[in-house]
Structure formats: C-alpha cells, structure tokens
Design goal:
Blueprint lengths: L1 H19 L15 E6 L3 H5 L2 H10 L3 E6 L5 H4 L6 E4 L3 H15 L3 E4 L6 H9 L3 E5 L9 E3 L9 H6 L22 H14 L5 E6 L11 H11 L4 E6 L5 H8 L5 E2 L3 H8 L4 E4 L2 H9 L4 E6 L15 E6 L9 H13 L7
Helix pairs in contact: 1-6, 8-11, 9-10, 9-13
C-alpha cells in the first residue's frame, strides 16, 4: 500500500513539474574533442552495465571526457571503467539533491545525457534543475530536454542498442561490431578469483557456474530444480560452482549439500570469478551482462511477464534462453530447461567416457 502511495505521489510531482516547465529551446551546440559531458544513469547494476557501450563510444570515438552521475547501488560499474573520467554519486534526500545540483552546475558540463530509456521522476527533477544542454530519448517528459531522439523499438531492439541510440546525436563513425558491455574487475579481485578457482578446479576442467540469485523470489527456481540441474550436468567432464548473494547462502548450501563449492562474494569478486567461467547458467540479467563483457556463453532462464520488451539477453556471448510469460518460475518446466541446457552444454564439452 505504501509503495502504491509513493508511486502515485511521484507521478503527481512529475505532472506538476511538466505543467510548469518551459521546454529548453534547442540550440546549436558546438562540441569538440576534450569537452566534458555527463551521463545520468541511476538505479540498478544491470541498468549501469548496459550503459557502458555508450560511454565507450562517446569517450573513444567522440574523444569526450565522460563523467557519470550514478547511484550508490550501481556506482561500482563505473568506478573502474577506463572510459569514465569521474563517477559522481547522487545523494538522496532534499539536502543531497541540492548538493548534487550545485556540484553538477559548477562543473559546467557541455552536455548532460539522460541514459534512462523510461521516465524517471528523480532524473526529471535533476534535468529541470540543470543549466546545461540536455539530451535524452524521446518520452513523456520530453519537454524538459534541450533535444531528444526517437527511441528504437523495445520489442525488436536489444537494450544495449536502445541506449546506444543516444550516440547518434553526435554523428560518430563507429562500428557496432566492436560494441560490448564493459566491466573491469580490480586486480586484487582477479587474483582472488584465480586462487579460489584453482582450489576447486586444479585440473582446469570446463568450468560451469550456476547462479541462483536474481534479486527477487519470483526468479528463484527452487532448491530441487537446481539439484536436478546439477545432476544432469555431472555426467559431463566438468567442474561446477554455485554463485549466490551472501544472504542466500543457506539456499545454496541446501542445493550443494556439501558437494558443490559455493561462491557468495562481493560484486567485484563475483565479476572476476565469472570472467574465469566457460559457461554460466543464470536467472539474473546483471550476471548475464557480466558474462557478455567477458564473452562467456550463457544459458538463461527469464521471467517476461506482462511485457513485449525484448529480453535483456547477453549482447555478445553465445546463449540459449528459456522464457516464461508467467510472473514467476513456479510453472517453469524442468524437463524443458534440462533438454535445452544439456544440448547447449554439449556444444562446448563432451560426456565422460
């Protein structure tokens, strides 16, 4: 009930803002290499990861100095990114909002880009308070921006390319063949991952990672299903590890029963560990995007309920998906998943003789 009230209040505030706003008149903006630009990308880690190709194109091909206004929850994606000049963390609350606006206006960015494909009330108020030229994909709050671009269709276009559409404003000559998710684990995380994986896979067998965590119980496939999945993979000449967030360790232990090693580490260490895999099974798009960054093949199970949007599949990695149109995995058929998964796994590794 409180959540519904909060959503209604946000919509009301946004409507008031739009009613009283005067659209910033489009103007000829003279951009050159070395100019400072800002990308706003709040919310979750997955949202941040799909924005990294845009950042690379603007920094590498455009030659701009790209800073990012991030959320405390997703800042880690940008902090070690070689194409990000500075990561600024958005401060919540009225006082934090004012501090953020003051800082951004003092930095005098040549252009500010809203990288959200949907309307964000918070970002709308940010944009309305900034002095800079602003750019976004066209949406219901378009009058707040100096310029907008017609978005690509969500039914037929991958989320990476929908965000990358913003680069078209700059008329940059780049190849989409070179576009991918970017995430750079810290060196200490890579060292840690190498040591951990060496312990559990000293013979360097084909390494399958099974991630059970997905941000909500609706996308938890169940202890018994994961047990049966592991049993179906054991006849292959492989090593298996389980991934989970720390607060789901008990679930992982119930699946493992002491037979399969469990990795329940911090995000940067998790990313480093995924980079060492030969195949990832996951219901979670954040880990799927990480796998894409490292060209690790992915088998994904997805909930696409009440939406026509193209799934947030790996952008570059070879992959296979099983999709349910129901709100959870309760009726996701194990045999269907098993058959497709074993066929996919067989492309990369052979059965034990």
């Amino acid at each position: 009930m409180l959540k519904k009230i909060e959503i209604a209040a946000r919509k009301l505030l946004l409507n008031i803002l739009l009613f009283f706003s005067i659209k910033k008149k489009p103007e000829k903006i003279d951009l050159k290499k070395g100019d400072n630009i800002l990308i706003i990308r709040l919310n979750r880690i997955g949202d941040a990861l799909v924005t990294t190709p845009l950042i690379k194109v603007l920094a590498e091909t455009g030659g701009f100095n790209v800073s990012v206004l991030a959320d405390a929850k997703n800042k880690i994606v940008f902090e070690n990114n070689p194409f990000v000049k500075e990561t600024i963390v958005f401060k919540k609350g009225l006082a934090g909002f004012r501090q953020t606006i003051k800082r951004l206006n003092n930095l005098n960015f040549k252009i500010v880009i809203d990288a959200h494909v949907d309307v964000s009330t918070t970002v709308s108020f940010l944009v309305a308070s900034l002095n800079a030229f602003t750019l976004a994909l066209k949406k219901s709050n378009a009058k707040l921006y100096s310029a907008t671009l017609q978005p690509l269709t969500k039914e037929k276009t991958h989320i990476v390319e929908r965000v990358l559409r913003l680069a078209d404003y700059f008329n940059l000559n780049y190849s989409k063949d070179n576009v991918n998710i970017i995430y750079k684990p810290k060196e200490e995380s890579l060292t840690f991952a190498n040591k951990e994986i060496q312990k559990i896979n000293p013979d360097r067998k084909f390494l399958l990672g099974i991630n059970i965590s997905a941000g909500s119980d609706a996308r938890f496939w169940g202890v018994e299903n994961y047990k049966r999945l592991i049993e179906s993979a054991e006849p292959f000449d492989i090593a298996i590890i389980l991934f989970c967030v720390p607060w789901e360790t008990e679930r992982a232990e119930n699946i493992s029963e002491g037979r399969i090693p469990i990795f329940a580490h911090k995000f940067d260490e998790l990313a480093a560990e995924i980079s060492k895999l030969d195949l990832l099974f996951s219901p979670d798009t954040s880990t799927v995007h990480l796998a894409s960054a490292f060209n690790v093949p992915v088998f994904g199970i997805y909930v696409l309920y009440n939406t026509t949007e193209m799934p947030w599949s790996p952008y570059r990695s070879e992959h296979e998906l099983v999709i349910t149109r129901e709100p959870n995995f309760n009726n996701l058929n194990f045999e269907e998943v098993k058959e497709k998964f074993i066929n996919f796994l067989s492309k990369f590794v052979s059965l034990n003789n």
